[in-house]
């Protein structure tokens, strides 16, 4: 930078003047100038040797000026700590020494309280006796020796006694100087315990009550000590303006009237409520710690509670982050929460099987399941299954288990399963031991440890009429007959039915139901309920009041059609109050139509509400009235009864009176 447009010289560097550089080096603490010829680029490090000391100043070394300016020795630092009493015990280190970690006991200014703090804490506030304020009344004797200090715990010394004659110049209310009162004949004060003369005027000191427009003052005569409570009745408001009180209810000593209302406004963070009592704050700053998880998922936000998203985690790792096999590397610095790098190499983790691995290296501890196709036995060891993925363990072949149960008589009828056949249950299959007299099986629930019960045989048999007629005499005499000897082999063959397609379909459905664990008694698709079933009691009620039943059926049919065709999933119909018999008819008809029915209120205003549900309520093919018409048509005409002649004077008819019908319990008529 010394010469503009230097002349070209064959022996010099291009664009160089050929003189010494002389520039100051970039290292701040290097005092030497660059001593090489004019050159491009930054100046090289200084080659001069200088003597430099370590961080603690105890050791010195001769090093090049351009080398690192800081080095550490192996000695203990030994520098004085912030407390000025102890020395640093760390090995030679950079920067300031850490604060002293020893704990000492400090006393407050008034000497009534103690606390343990780190050595050197609040030393600048010490007055030679104490180090902090306990916020209690000082209570030390004043210089007069008669009164105590009434100030909050403070550094020494205490103030002068406020009642000393040389300090008090006016009367207690402050309106009249004492010099004027002395002229009027008042006694001159000698010591602090002498009473202060009163001027006799109204005190007039402002009280803590009142409002901003009208300040209340003490109405007593000039006096010493605290003023009396306010005797006025004006209303004053709390500091937040929510409540008000009469002035005479407050004592003069009260600082501020505060209501008990808690502030419901949101704080600045938008998450928490203020909850301050009688709040007058306008900003509502949140003083809680945020505590939400950062983007790394490992650390939590330590900032004061705030709006919006938290900042990214500031912690950083200076170790290399590699994949499991070590082929892919992320070099430091690595931000906290960074996932391991993706690797396209084959996974090298140990696996449970010896099959070839086809998935790539991954950071998850658990490898994906092995999908290599193998041959495995089913759970019941019935057959060897092929093309089974390696990770599958419990395989069912779909066949019956057929393993011998604990009873030793029956085999398991469950589909191929895992574990024992019956763990906490007993075998309930019918006993197959032949009976003593008829040779039919016992058919009682399995009883391996007890003899067969003596019950009558319920098996149905076909017996030749001629053979049984020959033994009829024996039966009439009370003798027993061996029935098995009366049946011929030909009749036995005729008694056994051949399986047809329906039998095969039932057997296949039974196996599917056992495999899918469907109960035999369940009817999920309403296959068994092909038509409506009306009870005999309902039919009898319909014959007595056919118009009422037909009207109810029409309304239910219209309600079901409306809910199935409309947009709503439910529709309800409320009936007026009616007697018990009519309510029972509605409940029974609702069951046939698949409608929900509930009774409400108490007698005599008890009524029924029905609700049709889309997809659940149906309209039966045959109504109750049509069923009754068909039954009437199929019945033969009743015979004409012959009436007996009755005695007119008796007044009683020849027909017998019908028996009184027993009350029917309405099981649907219950409180909701």
From TrEMBL:
Recorded superkingdom: Eukaryota
Keyword check for Repeat: yes
Record keyword Transferase present: yes
GO molecular function annotations of the record: DNA-binding transcription factor activity, RNA polymerase II-specific; RNA polymerase II transcription regulatory region sequence-specific DNA binding; transferase activity; zinc ion binding
Location(s) in or outside the cell: Nucleus
GO CC terms: nucleus
Alphabetical list of Pfam families matching this protein: R3H (PF01424), zf-NF-X1 (PF01422)
GO BP: negative regulation of transcription by RNA polymerase II
UniProt domain R3H: residue ranges: 546-614
PANTHER family to which the protein is assigned, alphabetical: NUCLEAR TRANSCRIPTION FACTOR, X-BOX BINDING 1 NFX1, TRANSCRIPTIONAL REPRESSOR NF-X1
Family in the record: Belongs to the NFX1 family.
Protein name, UniProt field: Transcriptional repressor NF-X1
């Amino acid at each position: 930078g010394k010469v503009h447009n230097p002349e070209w010289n064959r022996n010099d560097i291009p664009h160089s003047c050929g003189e010494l550089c002389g520039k100051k080096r970039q290292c701040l603490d290097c005092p030497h100038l660059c001593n090489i010829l004019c050159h491009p680029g930054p100046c090289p490090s200084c080659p001069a040797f200088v003597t430099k000391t370590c961080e603690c100043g105890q050791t010195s070394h001769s090093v090049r000026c351009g080398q690192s300016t800081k080095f550490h020795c192996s000695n203990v630092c030994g520098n004085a700590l912030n407390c000025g009493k102890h020395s640093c015990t760390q090995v030679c280190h950079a920067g300031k020494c850490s604060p002293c970690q020893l704990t000492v006991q400090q006393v407050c200014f008034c000497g009534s309280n103690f606390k343990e703090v780190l050595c050197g804490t609040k030393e600048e506030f010490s007055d030679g006796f104490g180090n902090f304020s306990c916020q209690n009344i000082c209570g030390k004797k004043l210089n007069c020796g008669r009164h105590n200090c009434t100030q909050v715990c403070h550094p020494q010394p205490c103030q002068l006694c406020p009642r000393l004659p040389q300090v008090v110049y006016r009367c207690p209310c402050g309106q009249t100087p004492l010099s004027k009162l002395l002229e009027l004949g008042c006694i001159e004060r000698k010591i602090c315990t002498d009473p202060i003369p009163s001027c006799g005027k109204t005190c007039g000191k402002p009280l803590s009550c009142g409002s901003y427009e009208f300040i209340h003052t003490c109405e007593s005569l000039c006096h010493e000590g605290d003023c009396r409570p306010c005797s006025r009745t004006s209303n004053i408001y709390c500091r937040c303006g929510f409540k008000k009180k009469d002035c005479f209810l407050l004592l003069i000593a009260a600082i501020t009237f505060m209501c008990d209302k808690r502030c419901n406004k949101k704080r600045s963070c938008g998450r928490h409520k203020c909850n301050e009592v009688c709040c007058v704050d306008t900003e509502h700053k949140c003083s809680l710690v945020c505590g939400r998880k950062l983007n790394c998922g490992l650390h939590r936000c330590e900032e004061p509670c705030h709006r919006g998203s938290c900042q990214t985690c500031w912690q950083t790792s200076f170790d290399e982050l590699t994949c499991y096999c070590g082929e892919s590397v992320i070099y430091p610095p690595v931000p906290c929460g960074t996932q391991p790098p993706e690797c396209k190499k084959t996974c090298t983790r140990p696996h449970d099987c010896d099959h070839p691995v086809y998935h790539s290296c991954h950071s998850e501890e658990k490898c994906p399941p092995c999908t290599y196709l193998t041959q495995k036995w089913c759970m019941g060891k019935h057959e060897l299954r092929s093309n089974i993925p390696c990770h599958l363990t419990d395989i069912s072949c779909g066949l019956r288990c057929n393993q011998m149960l604990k009873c030793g008589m029956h085999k398991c009828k469950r589909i191929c399963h895992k574990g024992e056949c019956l763990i906490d249950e007993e075998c309930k299959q019918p006993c197959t031991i032949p009976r003593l007299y008829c040779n039919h099986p016992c058919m009682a629930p399995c009883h391996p440890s007890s003899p067969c019960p003596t019950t009558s045989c319920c098996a149905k048999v076909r017996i030749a009429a001629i053979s049984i007629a020959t033994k009829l005499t024996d039966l009439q005499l009370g003798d027993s007959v061996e029935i098995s000897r009366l049946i011929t082999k030909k009749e036995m063959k005729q008694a056994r039915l051949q399986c047809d397609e329906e039998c095969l379909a039932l057997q296949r459905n039974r196996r599917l139901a056992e495999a899918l664990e469907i109960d035999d008694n369940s009817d999920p698709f309403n296959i068994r309920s092909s038509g409506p079933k009306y009870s005999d009691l309902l039919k009898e009620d319909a014959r007595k009041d056919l118009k009422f039943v037909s009207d109810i059926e029409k309304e239910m049919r219209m309600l079901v059609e409306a809910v199935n065709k409309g947009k709503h999933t439910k529709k309800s119909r409320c009936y007026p109050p009616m007697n018990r018999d009519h309510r029972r008819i509605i409940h029974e008809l609702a069951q046939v139509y698949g409608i929900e029915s509930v009774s409400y209120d108490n007698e005599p205003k008890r009524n029924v509400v029905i609700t049709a549900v889309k997809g659940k309520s149906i309209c039966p093919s045959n109504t109750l009235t049509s069923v009754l018409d068909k039954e009437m048509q199929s019945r033969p005409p009743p015979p004409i009864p012959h009436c007996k002649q009755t005695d007119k004077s008796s007044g009683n008819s020849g027909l017998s009176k019908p028996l009184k019908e027993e009350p029917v319990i309405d099981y649907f008529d219950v409180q909701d």
